[in-house]
Amino acid sequence: MRHLRFLRYMDEVARTGSIRGAAARLNVTPSALNRRIMDLEEELGLKLLERRARGVSLTAAGEVFVSYIREQLNDADRMRSQLEDLRGLRRGTVRIACSQALAHDFLPQQIAAFRLRYPLMTFEVMVADHEHAITLLVDYEVDLVLVFRPAFIGRLRPLMTLPQRLVALMPADHPLARKPKLRLADCTGYPLALSELSTGGRQMIEERLSRSGLRFSVAAEANSFELLRGLVVHCGMISFQIEIGAEPEAMPPGVVVRPVDERDLAGADLVLGQLRGRNLPLAGAQFAEHLSGVLRQRAEALAS
């Protein structure tokens, strides 16, 4: 399968935007790599790269060719996974991007459960906001995404969705902890620790605030949900997460979880998805099936 080697070389040039940079990463000489690309351009009768003083960029023909390359490499990876499965090795790598809310408890739990069945499986996990996760999927950096409130794009194929509400995290002795359910207006006047604006939950809150005229006292913003939990524990602040990322039994001692009233925030979907029209490697397909089953059970429990 030597022809795949050059496909990977061309893919690396597209990702780095530099023949010299790609050559260094691939341990080949820049002149040899450039010669191979020029030979291919001559064979196709089209320029694939715009060569500039500082790096290269893809032409329209190059964009088409790189898309083809990534489909071929994906098919090759899937074929290898299937061959390994036929040998009984059950090897493979699952590449997935997830929202931060899934990274602390839910996804590690599901990886552990999956590896009980397939102990030779490995994982490459990217924790990313919903927009970045979709970019990783479209660029073939990951095979699956599990993200809250992703933007609609035609290339995303949802495999399973789970409705999610926002909940508030606060110290057990906080004055609002006595309430079974919170209105956003209840939280005004108290210091809040909020996730950055790129997260789906924060965007929901900001959209509601802009319509209601409420103003929050934001004492801290962070791109780490673990840090936000720490601010609740050590600073007595209120923070917000989606339900699956803030299950009461997983909270640090002294932290309670209260739902946000549906009149303020109606909720949105957690989406497990893949790239439309793409054949997943066997490892990714098996893990997608596992996650779909778990999410389906949770959805049925919510509906009952």
TrEMBL record:
Q: Which GO terms describe its cellular component?
A: cytosol
Protein family according to the UniProt entry: Belongs to the LysR transcriptional regulatory family.
Q: Which UniProt keywords apply?
A: DNA-binding, Transcription, Transcription regulation
Q: Which residues form a coiled coil?
A: none
Q: What PANTHER family does the record point to?
A: HTH-TYPE TRANSCRIPTIONAL REGULATOR YBHD (PTHR30419), NITROGEN ASSIMILATION TRANSCRIPTIONAL ACTIVATOR-RELATED (PTHR30419:SF8)
Q: Could you identify this protein by its name?
A: Putative transcriptional regulator
Every HTH lysR-type domain range: 1-59
Entry's PROSITE patterns? HTH_LYSR
Family annotation (Pfam families): HTH_1 (PF00126), LysR_substrate (PF03466)
GO MF entry, a single one: DNA-binding transcription factor activity
State the superkingdom.
Answer: Bacteria
Q: Which SUPFAM superfamilies match?
A: Periplasmic binding protein-like II, Winged helix' DNA-binding domain
Q: Which organism is it from?
A: Azorhizobium caulinodans (strain ATCC 43989 / DSM 5975 / JCM 20966 / LMG 6465 / NBRC 14845 / NCIMB 13405 / ORS 571)
